[in-house]
Amino acid sequence: MDFKDSIRYIPLFKGLPDRQIEELSRIAIRYSFLKDRIIFSEGDEADGFYVLISGRVKIYKLSKEGKEQILHIVEAQEPFGEVPAFAGKRFPAHAEAIEDSITLFFPRDAIVQLIKNDPSLALNMLALLSLRLRQFTVLVEDLSLKEVPQRLAAYILLIGEREKTDEIELNINKKQLASLLGTIPETMSRILGKMVSKGLIDVQGRRIKLIDKKALEELAYGAKLDI
Amino acid sequence: MDFKDSIRYIPLFKGLPDRQIEELSRIAIRYSFLKDRIIFSEGDEADGFYVLISGRVKIYKLSKEGKEQILHIVEAQEPFGEVPAFAGKRFPAHAEAIEDSITLFFPRDAIVQLIKNDPSLALNMLALLSLRLRQFTVLVEDLSLKEVPQRLAAYILLIGEREKTDEIELNINKKQLASLLGTIPETMSRILGKMVSKGLIDVQGRRIKLIDKKALEELAYGAKLDI
DNA sequence: CGTTCTGTTGAATACCTTCAATTCGCGTGG
DNA sequence: CCACGCGAATTGAAGGTATTCAACAGAACG
Q1: For position B12, which CATH number holds?
Q2: What's the predicted TM-score (pTM) here?
């Protein structure tokens, strides 16, 4: 099969010469996953990494009691599962399709070979891993140094920025939002409730309207929410 | 100045041809930091990264109330501050010498040039960043999904493994251990106390003797500590 | 139209932190 | 060499934030 078009526009492969794109399309393997399908589990041996072509994937850890912490929500065009391609040989977390998803799989050896041939792929990959590290420092900071209302306010504002709107639509359900913010649905629900009664936001299902942005910012980056 | 010997044995630079080592020693700049000196702060602009030659450095985040979360303790021969060399341009966290330290600083442009010339440096750097990502997934898991006694037990066992001894000597003080484990000295102290009274360990200052390893493992990876 | 999963609410509880008061340990200077 | 002083470490009491458990409401799905 020929995936050249899917591959050409993946940011990770930006700047690669046509020859390399052809080579990539030759070695890529297409895998599809229905919603709720496990793509890999923590500890599984890995011999390559994935790029998400369409759909959405969550990367997460599980506690022995079954509580879940989402590390990252993978969006289309993003690679995932790349850690064991370069260090260790097992996936450090679980991956599950949260929508019907199409991925391309790239075997490690082929990628390493390509990196040896083309430094721009190496630099793209370094940029990607560095960005992930940066995101993880924020996650650690949130989990360790901030309380749930702060995290939630920051998240809402972030989405608002990203979508350039004051009326955001969550692209994950509240259970998963809770897991992403390191808490549980009950807590999530209570805090959303408080924010509504304080007049900071308005909530209709997955739709959140930002009403008092100033107060949200104050909460996210400034003082505590006193209710 | 000539740092060739310091550089040759840095794992990050393993496998590089002599020519590259020479080049590295030409561009490296030596910086020394006394204990407690800030090396860089979160948000500072970065135009290169460091390798620690001797001493010890902590990488950490600060909350607005002043609480500290240590992300990583850098040991000799390890690079640090490498994220903004490849993505973004500012340091995502603070770095401070916790012992008198000697570092080499490598300007970003020079390193990028070297990577373009030599894929083995690229692969070493990718391995390093991947390893850090792996470590961060564990930190996130600990902070979000485990309680302090579990984290502490796991940490003690880890050091015991690493040093291959049942009588470990902490190389950081308990305040910093608390910060590394995402808690505060008081909590740390109480839990160590409970572990002692339960006969799991014995504590003499910075020296911890592992007495009941089985129970420690049970605590770290199995059931709860009921006291 | 019932079943199942998501989301909400209340009460009780657990864990950790905060604050305050000592105590300990160690380096420095008299 | 001892005493002092200061930060590190410990301990107790009180309080706060988030979780647990349970019950129920609501939405989605076949």
Answers
A1: 2.60.120.10
A2: 0.95
